[in-house]
Write a structure and sequence with these properties.
There is one protein chain. The protein is of the alpha/beta class. It contains 6 helices and 6 strands; from the N terminus they run H-H-E-E-E-H-E-E-E-H-H-H. Helix content is 39%, strand content 17%.
Length: 200
């Protein structure tokens, strides 16, 4: 499948999480919370127009928790390193007008990282990737660590997550419809496959 066929999944995922109600629904599902007011969602996704170097899929703050969510349609063991770039950029933006050289401790939102995978390569329901996995010299207690949870959101996986987050379930169904249409129409007819999936 060519890159445009892969990118539509990420584009739809990002578009859905631009809506505060969807971001809050996924936050609740991931954190076992029950917030109902979408206005408490503070979006801080990195856009190309803001950051010339990096762009991430979705990040937002709820109740002093920074959730950074990424979508992947292929297996990528480098997500912790990529997310490190993103979170450093976000924290820099958050603290830009504060004195990091001063004697007062600057508080920052508690970060939590997740990747949602829906590629064709078979993967476990849930895996954990760590930044320290990439270190040339392994350490029992690395001084720098970043832990990333990877959730398989293909059918038959993480059903409890789908039950808690309706839009994520609908997204999974939409991707399945597009895959079925591509199988029927051919991979060069993505636009037609997408139109038919939207009509379902």
């Amino acid at each position: 499948m060519n890159s445009s066929n892969r990118e539509y999944k990420s584009d739809v995922f990002c578009m859905l999480l631009e809506y505060p109600e969807n971001a809050l629904s996924l936050f609740n599902a991931m954190n076992g919370s029950d917030y109902t007011d979408p206005s408490i969602v503070e979006v801080c996704t990195l856009e190309k127009s803001i950051s010339l170097t990096v762009r991430n899929d979705a990040s937002f703050i709820v109740d002093n928790i920074l959730s950074l969510y990424e979508h992947q349609s292929s297996v990528c063991p480098n997500m912790p390193l990529r997310i490190l770039y993103y979170v450093c950029d976000i924290f820099k933006r958050i603290t830009d007008n504060r004195d990091i050289y001063g004697s007062k401790l600057i508080k920052i939102p508690t970060p939590r990282f997740a990747v949602f995978y829906n590629g064709l390569k078979k993967q476990p329901e849930h895996t954990i990737q760590k930044l320290s996995d990439a270190f040339e010299q392994a350490e029992d207690t690395p001084e720098l660590e970043l832990t990333c949870h990877v959730y398989n959101i293909n059918p038959g996986n993480n059903e409890n997550l789908f039950l808690k987050c309706g839009f994520l379930y609908e997204y999974m169904l939409f991707i399945e419809y597009v895959r079925e249409n591509i199988a029927s129409y051919g991979k060069d007819n993505l636009e037609e496959a997408l139109k038919d999936a939207i009509a379902k």
